[in-house]
Amino acid sequence: MRRRSRSTFGVVAMGKRLVLIVAVVVTLLPLVWIVSASFSAQASLFAAPLFPHEPTFAHYIKLVEDTKFLRWVLNSLIEGCAPPRVCSPPSSARRARPRSSRCT
Least buried of 50, 55, 78, 102, by fewest C-beta within 10 Å? Predict the structure, then answer.
């Protein structure tokens, strides 16, 4: 069986790293785009540059003032941190079948 040289392993490792870097960029680019667009003063998502020249918090201020966003976050935190609940009724609450002493 022929052994691979160290340079072959270096090329394979570099190729794997390159694929990983491309995958990370492709995965994170939409998130960066949406967050940067939220700081843009323009109303259009597609007209906003990737990094706005004059970032603004106006959209976040409007979100907090005009909606119940903070209450929604609190509700999510309460539900997320609460212990799990059982959805089925306890066994004592189920209707018991009357048992007959006779076999039929």
Answer: 102
